[in-house]
Amino acid sequence: xxxxxxxxxxxxxxxxxxxxxxxxxxxxxxxxxxxxxxxxxxxxxxxxxxxxxxxxxxxxxxxxxxxxxxxxxxxxxxxxxxxxxxxxxxxxxxxxxxxxxxxxxxxxxxxxxxxxxxxxxxxxxxxxxxxxxxxxxxxxxxxxxxxxxxxxxxxxxxxxxxxxxxxxxxxxxxxxxxxxxxxxxxxxxxxxxxxxxxxxxxxxxxxxxxxxxxxxxxxxxxxxxxxxxxxxxxxxxxxxxxxxxxxxxxxxxxxxxxxxxxxxxxxxxxxxxxxxxxxxxxxxxxxxxxxxxxxxxxxxxxxxxxxxxxxxxxxxxxxxxxxxxxxxxxxxxxxxxxxxxxxxxxxxxxxxxxxxxxxxxxxxxxxxxxxxxxxxxxxxxxxxxxxxxxxxxxxxxxxxxxxxxxxxxxxxxxxxxxxxxxxxxxxxxxxxxxxxxxxxxxxxxxxxxxxxxxxxxxxxxxxxxxxx
Length: 468
What we know:
The chain is α/β, with parallel strands linked by helices.
């Protein structure tokens, strides 16, 4: 749960629903101004870090955030601090590993989420988190489940195993293939940009938008996001390689930025240690400064954010930086914004208090193997017992969204949204777009930067609360 807080002079409002908060503020004719710093973060990091939000007057309180408010002289004064709850030393390690108990707790969390609702929709990949949700739905005896699996018509699509799970449990299964060779339905984007409570730059935001528009029968959307922050956030092999060879001197990194093209592998190595936990392929400050006169450097924020983490091991570092900022502020946000834009409720059962309290307080070596960099050990046991889950065969997969085909097929809409956005310099934007589209067929990473710029531009152009 994220708590959104509006504070401006003598006005203080809070709500867990960003759209409801924005509506209340607008009804009172109070200002909602877009924050230049938030825009800068969005375009260079692919997220707006807690406790900031897209609006200058609104804070977003995420995992570990505390807000202290005082009232003096007719004004509300706010002070923020972070007390992160999932550092290793905060685990009691008193719970005993029991796959049956984990399944029972997760099943209860799902039952609470879908109680009284017909035909819940499960976002089902072949991964451990969503497969575990399918197992628990079956344990509840639910056969009215509609499961959606993204496909990109590649050899790493996840629908074969997902379909076999649905056949086993009697669920309805549907493959969702995002139109990538033809223009995306314009009305779908219009509704999303207008109704999404917040912008999100997640790489799968557009596929989730398409899935919500297709799932007309959906009441509650169940998604497997949210567990990595407390089960053990382990770095991948590529993560570890990049960390070893990245340029650590920020002065030297900024000098090299002037000669290293954006959205390339060398440019990735110029990122700071926090940014390496996020999407790679985004703009650097010097590109954003060309078309956005309000650009503010994000370096001071990240320097202050990671300073208290120096000396902690990689798992604690990633729990805060990757888990708190990226997993909550991008991965989970994409399903929440897509669901809200199309009038659906959304549930993340892995974020249930009972599940978290049990799993986080397991012994460390029952949560993850710090030598082999493997996490979700008890989840694997649960799935082996329930469905003989082939985790070695499946491995770690990601939905392969064909950014190149999508942005080439939707070039007219993308250019229009960006060039019509009043926040950008039109001439500089047109020049940069020409460069990006020329490079796009040869560089998939260019699509990451285009994705963030397009999604933010559309939201700023059309959003019913903050758009201009």
